[in-house]
């Protein structure tokens, strides 16, 4: 029920307590009720939602309002890097707060944001050195799409007929309309189709559907480019892993091959590292794993260590040049967000990058990745497990009724949800998926925590027959 202040019952300013507070803290039950009723959650069927209200967190551990502890098996939707509540990141945010919380990016800089732009230029692959900041991953994609489109109108040899985009099947680039247009997950975006621009779709190189090496898929991509390159502004893709598609992993060499082909056919390449960036695949950026320098690199999620909303679209000098000119020459990128380059978020990002060095995050991560690999290996033989896969600190497998055909469990058994509930009861938070299980914890997860997470999943699989009948 909305609180309706009609003229007769509207509180006069004098009825508010002078200290601006004084209201009793809600009980935990009230918080859960308000969570269910007032808080419309992302990607959550609200009728079935069972409140889980987190109060604080520490390292890889989330702690709810009742004090119960859960391992964060999805790194708070793939963004937490060094653990929650890390003192160095907390301090950096506090220090920035004592200077200024926010200044605009329209026509002025901020020392902290400028330093981050410089640091990103130092660590980004190849010659990528000009950063446009936004606040979330979808916006980073929007910027890349618009800048790529605009580039072809005002580059040295304009090609205004290049207006289309190639995107992968089951791609996910966020939920704003431009990002949704290049997205390819039916369940999320089909309803909005009348609002979305047309895209040339290249089927995802999913080796589960078609067990083949990169060359097979690249030959098909080349045919597509031969046919369409003249009208294509850019190809956009998630590198190595399409996370939201179901942790779909590409065959080695595919990303490198796409870079070679897009260059050969004069098509820009937008690489979406919103999920894979900042160590997730074992390297700072997935692009490095295949020695690729895209034309636009989109970053988000882990850029701030997973602390504050921040994203970035980074490009190189040739694109940058096309946007130079007199103020009234019409070459400006007319795009921006109020909180673009917010200094608090940038301070968190700088602290996170410092931690990569101080804590030798990438070096230590290799051991964690190997440990995850050993756990996954032990699941391969399970009769209800298929397509066990791993890329860096992402592990996943499909849940099947029949291993020989890889047929999934009927949807109505809600087997993925039951596994997630089983894990939750044992202190592990997994994001439930209908037909597969994945883990993507903070990179800082400890050996014992990872053992606990993976052993819990293994025991959930052991209890599968019981879960299966537990409606
Ligand atoms: N791109 C990829 C690859 C993602 O995985 C996501 C989010 O999961 C996005 C873009 C969208 O990011 P955001 O949710 O911050 O808008």
Q: Can you characterise this structure?
A:
This protein is an alpha/beta fold and 471 residues long. The chain is 36% helix and 16% strand. It is built from 16 helices and 17 strands. Helix 3 (87-97) runs antiparallel to helix 12 (343-358) and helix 8 (214-228) packs parallel to helix 9 (254-264). The chain is globular and about 65 Å long. Residues 136-138, 141, 172-174, 238, 243-244, 272, 274-275, 300 line the site of pyridoxal-5'-phosphate (PLP). Pyridoxal-5'-phosphate binds at residues 136-138, 141, 172-174, 238, 243-244, 272, 274-275, 300.
Morphology: globular
N- to C-terminal distance: 32 Å
Low-confidence stretches: 3-18
Q: What is the helix fraction of residues, given as a range?
A: 25-40%
| Rg, Å, rounded | 24 Å
Q: Which ligands occur here?
A: pyridoxal-5'-phosphate
Strand order of the largest sheet: 4-12-11-10-7-5-6
Our count of helices gives 16
Helix/strand/pairing category: alpha/beta
Give the amount of beta strand, in percent. Answer: 15-25%
Q: Which whole number gives the mean pLDDT?
A: 94
- Could you give a short account of the major beta sheet? 7 strands, mixed
Q: Please provide the count of β strands.
A: 17
């Amino acid at each position: 029920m909305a609180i309706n202040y009609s003229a007769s019952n509207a509180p006069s300013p004098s009825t508010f307590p002078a200290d601006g507070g004084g209201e009793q803290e809600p009980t935990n039950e009230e918080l859960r009720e308000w969570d269910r009723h007032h808080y419309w959650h992302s990607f959550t069927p609200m009728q079935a939602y069972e409140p889980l209200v987190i109060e604080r967190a520490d390292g890889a551990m989330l702690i709810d309002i009742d004090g119960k502890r859960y391992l964060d098996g999805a790194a708070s939707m793939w963004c937490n890097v060094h653990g929650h509540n890390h003192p160095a990141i907390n301090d950096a945010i506090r220090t920035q707060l004592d200077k200024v919380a926010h200044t605009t990016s329209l026509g002025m800089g901020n020392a902290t944001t400028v330093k981050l732009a410089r640091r990103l230029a130092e660590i980004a692959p190849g010659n990528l050195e000009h950063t446009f900041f936004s606040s979330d991953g979808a916006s980073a994609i929007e910027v890349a799409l618009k800048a790529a489109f605009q580039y072809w109108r005002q580059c040295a040899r304009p090609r205004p007929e290049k207006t289309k985009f190639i995107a992968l099947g089951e791609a996910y680039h966020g939920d704003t309309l431009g990002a949704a247009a290049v997205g390819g997950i039916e369940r999320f975006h089909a309803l909005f189709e009348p609002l979305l621009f047309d895209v040339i779709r290249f089927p995802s190189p999913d080796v589960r559907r078609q067990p083949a090496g990169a060359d097979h898929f690249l030959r098909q991509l080349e045919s597509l480019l031969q046919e369409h390159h003249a009208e294509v502004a850019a190809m956009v893709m998630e590198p190595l892993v399409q996370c939201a598609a179901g942790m779909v992993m590409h065959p080695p060499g595919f990303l490198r091959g796409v870079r070679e082909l897009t260059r050969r056919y004069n098509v820009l390449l937008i690489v979406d590292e919103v999920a894979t960036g900042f160590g997730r695949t074992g390297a700072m950026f997935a692009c490095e794993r295949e020695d690729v320098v895209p034309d636009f690199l989109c970053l988000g999620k882990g850029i701030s260590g997973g602390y504050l909303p921040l994203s970035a679209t980074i490009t190189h000098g040739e694109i940058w040049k096309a946007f130079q000119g007199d103020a009234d020459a019409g070459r400006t990128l007319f795009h921006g967000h109020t909180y673009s380059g917010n200094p608090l978020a940038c301070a968190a990002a700088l602290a996170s990058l410092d931690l990569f060095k101080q804590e030798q995050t990438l070096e230590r991560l290799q051991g964690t990745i190997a440990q995850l690999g050993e756990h996954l290996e032990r699941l391969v033989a399970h009769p209800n497990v298929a397509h066990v896969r791993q890329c860096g600190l992402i592990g996943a497998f499909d849940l099947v009724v029949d291993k020989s055909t890889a047929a999934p469990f009927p949807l109505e058994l809600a087997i993925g949800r039951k596994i997630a509930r089983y894990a939750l009861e044992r202190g592990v938070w997994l994001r439930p998926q209908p037909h597969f299980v994945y883990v993507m914890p903070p990179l800082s997860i400890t050996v014992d925590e990872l053992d606990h997470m993976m052993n819990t999943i293994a025991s959930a699989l052991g209890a599968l027959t019981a879960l299966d009948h537990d409606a």
